[in-house]
Amino acid sequence: MHLIHSTSGDVPGDVPVEVAYDLSDRPRPADRPWIVMSMISTADGAVSLEGNSALLGGPTDREIFLHLHRSGDSVLVGAETVRQDGYNPLPSHQVLVVVSESGDLGRNSAALTATGNTRVVSGDVREIVRDLPGRVCVLEGGPNLNAQMLAADLVDEICLTIAPRFVSGTSQRIATGALALREPWRLAHIGTDDGFVFLRYLRTSSGD
């Protein structure tokens, strides 16, 4: 990834993904983990193509997603995203937390629930995040869960890939909810590779 702007001390130029997206120094807030949203969208705001977000990405975006996915002590995700993307069980040192009213996790449901580190939860997101283990949680959508988390002021950092596509259609945005949000965010870095733009934002009250 070619870094062209950073506020965290990284020198612009070619930077390894694991350096640009190193989460090891993130502070844990008092009553919950540091929460990092990891998402991709097209240049016109769509979060999926034919219902699949993976169709939007490229090699560097995939590398970023996997690095973040593996960096969290927990991964928080909505059941619809789990069903669409076919999530697999996480390693034993991580916890997968799926927000679902029905408990339906799709084709991999049996494998996911057979492990001791998958939790299926429902209810208010404030209560859910208070029970998340560890120091860092990676939030992987979907748009409805993202909107709930943003509205509750529970997201500290957003890692967003902009794919060089314009797809039109009716796809959702990265956050879709009834409440309009007005809180400004601070741009922490801009990276590029093969037409993709990689943005990292911090909440204005969060540190680097």
Layout of helices and strands, plus pairs?
Elements lengths: L1 E5 L6 E2 L2 H4 L13 E9 L16 H13 L2 E5 H7 L9 E5 L9 H6 L3 E4 L3 H6 L5 E4 L3 H9 L5 E7 L21 E9 L2 E8 L5
Parallel strand pairs: 3-7, 3-8, 4-5, 4-7, 5-6
Antiparallel strand pairs: 1-2, 1-9, 8-10, 9-10
Keywords: NADP, Oxidoreductase
GO molecular function, one term: 5-amino-6-(5-phosphoribosylamino)uracil reductase activity
Pathway: Cofactor biosynthesis; riboflavin biosynthesis
Molecular structure report:
The protein has 208 residues and is α/β, with parallel strands linked by helices. The chain has helices at residues 17-20, 59-71, 79-85, 109-114, 125-130, 143-151; strands at 2-6, 13-14, 34-42, 74-78, 95-99, 118-121, 136-139, 157-163, 185-193, 196-203. A hairpin with a 6-residue loop joins β1 (2-6) and β2.
CATH superfamily, please?
A: Dihydrofolate Reductase, subunit A
What's the total helix number? 6
Arrangement of strands in the largest sheet: 2-1-9-10-8-3-7-4-5-6
End-to-end separation in angstroms reads: 20 Å
**Mean pLDDT across all residues, rounded?**
92
Q: In percent, how helical is the residue content?
A: 10-25%
Beta-strand percentage range: 25-35%
How large, in whole angstroms, is the Cα Rg? 16 Å
| Biggest sheet overview | 10 strands, mixed
Q: What is the number of strand segments?
A: 10
Global outline: globular
Instruction: Kindly report the CATH topology.
Output: Dihydrofolate Reductase, subunit A
Structural class: alpha/beta
**Count of individual domains:** 1
Question: Which oligomerization state do the chains in this entry correspond to?
Answer: single chain
Identify the CATH architecture. 3-Layer(aba) Sandwich
Uncertain stretches of 5 or more adjacent residues: none
* CATH C-level label: Alpha Beta
Order of helices and strands, N to C?
EEHEHEHEHEHEHEEE
